[in-house]
Amino acid sequence: MKYMLMINSAATEPEPGAFPAEGCEVSDWMAYDKAVKEAGIFVAGNSLADLTTATTVRVGPGGERTVTDGPFAETREVLGGYYVIDVPDLDVALDWAARCPGARGGGSIVVRPVAEF
Amino acid sequence: MKKPAATPARTPMEPQTAAPVEEAPATTPARTLMEPQTAAPVEEAPATTPARTPTTKPQAGASVEAVFREEHGRLLAALVRRFGDLDLAEEVTADALEAALVHWPVDGVPARPGAWLMTTARRRAVDRLRRDQAYAARLALLHVEAERAAPAPPADAADADGLPDERLQLFFTCSHPALAAEDRGALMLRCLAGLSTPEVARAFLVPAPTMAKRIVRAKKKIREARVPFRVPDADELPERLPGVLQVIYSIFTEGYAASSGPHLQRLDLAEEAIRLARILRRLLPAEREVAGLLALLLLIHARRAARTGPEGELVLLEEQDRGRWDRSMIEEGLALVPVALAGPPGPYGVQAAIAALHDEAANVATTDWPQIVALYDVLLALAPSPVVELNRAAAVALRDGPEQGLALLDALAGEPRLREYAPYLTARADLLERLGRRAEAATAYREALRLVGNDPERAHLRRRLSALEPPDLA
């Protein structure tokens, strides 16, 4: 079953003088990425560019298109990237989520099954 | 002073606000930790055990009833494992029980009732799957996938019926942390205790449609997020087992002191919790904390008859007629305490030891308060919480006097979890009253009254308050 791991970073901007949380450095991300791929469960995954580069599109009832800058997070957590993995059940998905560096240092991972049709 | 805990035999004690107060709610995961038990529309259920067999034929008789209570969870667990679908398993379990109600009174109860029910349920499941081909295909696919990913672990040991007991899987599924805390107890009562949805609704004092929605939501999550039906591996058990114990404990706590309603206790709920703890104990005989939890529940529940007076009013621990305590239940609990403490103690084992000390004492005065305080120190080291601090302070008050107890309570005044916690305010009020600080005591009683749950507790606080403030002042 496929699950999406949505990686929420702790804050849009690190506190001045703050260091990355332990176990959450670039080398940790590379190691995690490697582990996911070597386990044969990797379906898809990307890291998203900074939230300030995001643009939102809405289409109204008359077909009119509205394009706005943003969104800007109202909470301190923003979606920073995702993985889609294929594993047998939720417990395994949660184990992988727990290993993800993004779950540390005030970040969190939301695990959602990918709907099957 | 005696050494802390460890030695089972004479250690008994319990999680109570030892205080005067009243038998305060149990310790650690007391009411605050309780799942947010819906403050829903209170339509209080009778404290009696609800009828359990919906389609009862009078002749079916007590033996059928007994078999059902025992078999329901076992049957359901085995079917869930076989078909991987909780809804289907529930439907065919109900079908099989109904069939038994029709046939058994006529043909007699079969020699192996469990096997009979299992065969019947399996046949019904196959019928259903034949009728719904698309569903069957999808289910089969799920199975193939699941088997490919993780071959089914060996079943638990079979019992005399030749059927494996797979309820343990169900315990871990029902209390999976991915489910809403408030739904875990409901699922456990529904799937493992075999209560119907309206019965579960009564248990948690919510309208039946609300409970039905919650159960449907929880089952949908189990199915669609694929919460596994499995026993955690030995190395995961320490992490997952406390969650299972917590759910059972929460059910018991609500039964011990109802969060609302006209009755102090909900004996049906407390008994279901004990039944669940017994099943879990049979399934995990080597787990000391399971023994500890069962011991704790038995040692506390043994006092049920003495905890209320003829009018259902609250009777404080110090005023209880200990002759009305259930000796056989106490003996059973006491026998489990050494099992629970036969190694590094866990929080439930220590609480059971405390409960045992209370149960063994002839009265409050001769209760071994130093030992109880020592056990609370052990408990604090294992599972620190403001509620444990509160209970310890109450025990200190009985060991060293109200002044010392009050000093400890006042040191806890900043704890956010205690600010809105009635037992804290009640304990403080009581000690203030004992110290003759009547005005302050009255204030604390009034605050506690605002927060307290059921009618008998409220009535008790009103009495204490009116004794402090003669009505002529009004």
Structural features, described:
The complex is a heterodimer of chains A (117) and B (474). Chain A is α+β, with helices and mostly antiparallel strands and 117 residues long. Chain A has one domain: Dimeric alpha+beta barrel (Alpha-Beta Plaits), CATH 3.30.70. Chain A is built from two helices and six strands. Chain A has a four-stranded antiparallel beta sheet, with helices on one face. A two-stranded antiparallel sheet of chain A has the order 3-4. Chain B has a domain of 130 residues. The N terminus of chain B is likely disordered. Chains A and B meet through helix 2 and strand 6 of A and helix 4 of B.
As a percent range, the share of strand residues of chain A is 25-35%
Helix content of chain A: 10-25%
| CATH level 1 name of chain A | Alpha Beta
Question: Which two chains have the most extensive interface, and how many residues on each?
Answer: A-B, 10 and 13 residues
Structural class of chain A: alpha+beta
Low-confidence stretches of chain A: none
Number of strands of chain B: 0
Family (chain A): Belongs to the YciI family.
Protein name (chain A): YciI family protein
Organism (chain A): Actinomadura luzonensis
Domain YCII-related (chain A): 1-117
Features:
heterodimer; A: 117 residues; alpha+beta; Alpha-Beta Plaits; 4-stranded antiparallel beta sheet; two-stranded antiparallel sheet; 33% strand; globular; B: 474 residues; mainly alpha; 20 helices; 61% helix; 0% strand; disordered N terminus; transcription regulation (chain B); TPR-like_helical_dom_sf (chain B); RNA_pol_sigma70_r2 (chain B); RNA polymerase sigma factor (chain B)
